[in-house]
């Protein structure tokens, strides 16, 4: 996201969450927050506690966000990529977008079935000699267990809604999501172990070298606190250098796809 | 294969599903793209995109990359003074935090710098650092700034040693060179995954010092004590560079002379002022005074060159006979406004930009503030006796409201005033290091404009003598100024100022004084050369 895109992002963000947009020119946005947004963003729990206690409604704050470099001197909050405020908004999105159940929008007039897919987006982080992230998006067809990768890329441009479209009906899943998660876990682990040989070797080498250095250092020492010190050092070396892979869940959900789309997904895996 | 896969997220997934509300497609997609944006790739510096206002100099970027990618987050940052070690440490910390490798951080710095670190991390790096305060325990905040002196005391020490930190940063780490001290013992026991030690002088006296610093950062790199000593001995004989090569694996040392960065220019201008007839007469009276006391006529001469008030105070507190005192004091009372002060006010007016005035005397400080006020110029004062919060407030006022900051030297240390680029030396300090420290307040990393330095000098007085004697020769040792302190203590010189004062007092002619000062300076710069040679070979 670059600086010029931030304004539009803010407009969308607040509009969507029912804040009142009071003023809007490129780079300057004044919004009156909702109570919910105020509580999340403005960090004034005592105010809300107080007004509620005395039986008042409470007045959410009005905030001006400046995202144009040339208008930085205007009165308001300067917001840029990396600023804590934007980070807060990202966090809200990440939380709200954790889970979903969606139905493909379909213009067809005929009665038709929708096929259940479980979609799971994971951040795979390699950490050891270096840190490297990869996004893995997997879909599992909950009827026969077909699995396909890069799922999000395929459906990103599709249109979905949270309510089932008229004339459509769901095909009930045969495979539980629990089972689907297990399958994904197994498959991903297998793939990671196949492709991470170089990473593991490089990290292990570094790790062994440091551990050996520590061993040598403590060889002659026999005092009591030496053991504790050595443990601390070994832990520190392990945490930094030992090859580790973390699977971090970004989000997941049930997607009901039209027959054509579902077949499409299964053919190109 | 030796690799650990953490899949806790997936294990807890099944129970979790129902607890989340269903999001719409837009938000789901956005969450996905936001996560993609935040991804790290191998050997890149992810955090720089979060810090658009921060521009790193090339040696700083280099240092950051090395510490992160080659030293894997444990290192000694030993750049020379003023090259921005704090910035380097800040970026390294930020990067590790952005990568989610570091959350709990302990930063130990000299107590005078706590506030500065706190502000710098918050404002420049958006890291929510918090200075330790007695109202909350050590684990209450993720990023805590404090001093070793506080931290090593009970009950703090045991509380800290119970924690498992992700990152430990220690500023001015040369305080840890002695392994027998409590400081050292304490720091060595702190548990932390990543670790940065910052010092401009990794080796002050003995090569052993680097051994002990390295034992904190990377224990075992230099072997155990015995083998280290053996290596040092053989190295002396066969001139090998074994230790230096090893040390370089975990230490960064940039020297000012080697950095390619172009520092902004320093323009120096001398503004000359004449005493009025009355003032000159009184000055001459002081010069001819024949007193034999702890302070000399020289002191009084320097003071009257600053302000009537400074001189008056000294005389009032002297142990002279009352009649004598009263006579001099009455004479002072009859003097007009100080010529130099008037000239300064006029100059500040014409400058019409923010400037800092340094004076040696508190009475002058008050007088100048009053005089500026009379002329409609808003100024704030600053000195060492102010409490921390008052200092912060004064700097804030200076930054936002006042045109002038009037400071005494005692208050100047650790101040960052790079938003200002004019500095007036109302009194010329007799110690070149003091001068450098003053200028360093504004001519430092972050200064974008050329820096203007002004000397206020009264013609035909001690001011002018000092200017000729000392200031024209400053170029001679501009390279050593940063480390002057250590050089002087090694030479057994306690106060350079005293040394110069003695020369001025005892010399019968200007020529003699000049030669003596030359000698003094050459001794100092020679010893720096020796030190450098010793450093290089170690």
Automatic annotation (TrEMBL), chain A:
InterPro entries recorded: YqhG
Protein name, per record: Uncharacterized protein
Organism: Piscibacillus halophilus
Lineage per the UniProt record: Bacteria, Bacillati, Bacillota, Bacilli, Bacillales
Automatic annotation (TrEMBL), chain B:
Domain Helicase C-terminal, chain residue ranges per copy: 343-504
Keywords: ATP-binding, Helicase, Hydrolase, Nucleotide-binding
Molecular function terms from GO: ATP binding; helicase activity; hydrolase activity
Entries under Gene3D superfamilies matching the protein: P-loop containing nucleotide triphosphate hydrolases (3.40.50.300), Tandem AAA-ATPase domain (3.40.50.10810)
Helicase ATP-binding domain sequence ranges: 66-220
InterPro entries: DEXDc_RapA (IPR057342), Helicase_ATP-bd (IPR014001), Helicase_C-like (IPR001650), P-loop_NTPase (IPR027417), SNF2-like_sf (IPR038718), SNF2/RAD54-like_C (IPR049730), SNF2_N (IPR000330)
Taxonomic superkingdom: Bacteria
PANTHER family, A to Z: SNF2/RAD54 HELICASE FAMILY (PTHR10799)
Protein name (database record): Superfamily II DNA/RNA helicases, SNF2 family
Organism field: Piscibacillus halophilus
């Amino acid at each position: 996201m670059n600086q010029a895109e931030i304004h539009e992002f803010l407009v969308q963000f607040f509009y969507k969450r029912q804040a009142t947009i009071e003023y809007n020119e490129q780079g300057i946005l004044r919004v009156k927050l909702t109570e919910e947004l105020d509580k999340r963003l403005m960090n004034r729990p005592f105010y809300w506690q107080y007004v509620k206690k005395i039986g008042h409604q409470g007045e959410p704050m009005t905030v001006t966000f400046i995202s144009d470099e040339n208008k930085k001197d205007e009165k308001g909050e300067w917001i840029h990529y990396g600023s804590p405020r934007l980070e807060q908004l990202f966090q809200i999105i990440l939380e709200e977008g954790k889970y979903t159940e969606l139905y493909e929008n379909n213009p067809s007039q005929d009665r038709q079935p929708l096929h259940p897919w479980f979609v799971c987006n994971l951040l795979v982080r390699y950490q050891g000699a270096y840190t490297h992230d990869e996004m893995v998006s997997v879909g599992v067809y909950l009827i026969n267990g077909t699995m396909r990768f890069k799922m999000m890329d395929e459906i990103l441009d599709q249109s979905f809604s949270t309510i089932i479209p008229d004339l459509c009906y769901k095909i009930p899943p045969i495979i539980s999501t629990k089972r689907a998660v297990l399958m994904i876990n197994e498959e991903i682990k297998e793939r990671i172990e196949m492709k991470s040989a170089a990473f593991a070797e490089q990290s292990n080498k570094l790790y062994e070298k440091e551990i050996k250095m520590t061993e040598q250092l403590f060889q002659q020492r026999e005092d009591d606190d030496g053991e504790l010190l050595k443990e601390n050092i070994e832990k520190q070396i392990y945490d930094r250098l030992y090859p580790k892979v973390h699977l971090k869940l970004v989000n997941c959900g049930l997607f009901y796809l039209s027959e054509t789309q579902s077949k499409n997904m299964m053919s190109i895996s | 294969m030796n690799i650990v896969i953490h899949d806790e997220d997936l294990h807890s997934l099944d129970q979790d599903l129902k607890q989340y509300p269903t999001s719409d497609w837009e938000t789901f997609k956005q969450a996905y793209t936001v996560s993609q944006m935040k991804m790290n790739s191998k050997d890149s510096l992810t955090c720089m995109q979060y810090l658009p206002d921060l521009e790193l100099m090339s040696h700083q970027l280099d240092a950051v990359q090395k510490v992160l990618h080659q030293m894997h987050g444990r290192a000694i940052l030993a750049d020379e003074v003023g090259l921005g070690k704090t910035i380097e440490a800040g970026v390294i910390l930020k990067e590790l935090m952005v990568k989610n490798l570091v959350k709990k951080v302990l930063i130990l710095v000299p107590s005078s710098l706590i506030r500065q670190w706190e502000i710098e991390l918050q404002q420049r790096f958006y890291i929510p650092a918090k200075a330790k305060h007695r109202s909350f325990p050590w684990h209450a905040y993720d990023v805590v700034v404090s001093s070793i002196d506080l931290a090593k005391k009970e009950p703090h020490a045991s509380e800290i040693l119970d924690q498992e930190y992700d990152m430990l940063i220690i500023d001015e780490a040369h305080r840890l060179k002695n392994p027998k001290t409590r400081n050292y013992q304490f720091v060595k026991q702190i548990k932390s995954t990543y670790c940065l030690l910052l010092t401009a002088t990794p080796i002050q006296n003995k090569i052993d010092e680097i051994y002990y610093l390295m034992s904190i950062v990377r224990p075992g790199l230099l072997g155990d004590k015995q083998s280290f000593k053996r290596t040092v001995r053989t190295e002396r004989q066969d001139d090998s560079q074994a230790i230096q090569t090893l040390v370089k694996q975990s230490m960064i040392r940039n020297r000012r002379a080697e950095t390619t960065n172009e520092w902004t220019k320093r323009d120096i201008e001398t503004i000359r002022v004449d005493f009025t007839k009355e003032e000159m007469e009184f000055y001459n009276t002081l010069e001819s005074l024949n007193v034999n006391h702890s302070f000399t006529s020289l002191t009084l001469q320097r003071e009257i060159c600053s302000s009537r008030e400074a001189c008056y105070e000294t005389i009032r507190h002297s142990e002279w006979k009352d009649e004598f005192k009263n006579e001099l004091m009455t004479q002072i009372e009859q003097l007009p406004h100080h010529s130099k002060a008037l000239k300064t006010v006029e100059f500040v007016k014409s400058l019409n930009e923010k400037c800092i005035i340094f004076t040696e005397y508190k009475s002058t400080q008050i007088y100048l503030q009053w005089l500026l006020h009379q002329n409609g110029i808003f100024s704030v004062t600053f000195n060492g006796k102010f409490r921390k919060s008052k200092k912060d407030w004064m700097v804030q006022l200076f930054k936002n409201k006042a045109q002038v900051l009037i400071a005494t030297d005692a208050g100047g240390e650790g101040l960052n005033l790079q938003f200002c680029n004019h500095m007036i030396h109302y009194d010329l300090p007799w110690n070149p290091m003091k001068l450098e420290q003053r200028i360093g307040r504004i001519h430092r990393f972050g200064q974008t404009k050329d820096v203007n330095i002004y000397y206020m000098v009264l013609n035909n007085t001690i001011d002018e003598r000092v200017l000729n004697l000392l200031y024209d020769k400053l170029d001679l040792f501009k390279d050593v100024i940063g480390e002057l302190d250590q050089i002087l203590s090694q030479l057994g010189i306690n106060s350079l100022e005293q040394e110069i004062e003695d020369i001025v007092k005892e010399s019968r002619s200007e020529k003699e004084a000049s030669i003596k000062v030359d000698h003094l300076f050459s001794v100092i710069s020679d010893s720096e050369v020796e030190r450098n040679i010793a450093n290089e070979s170690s």
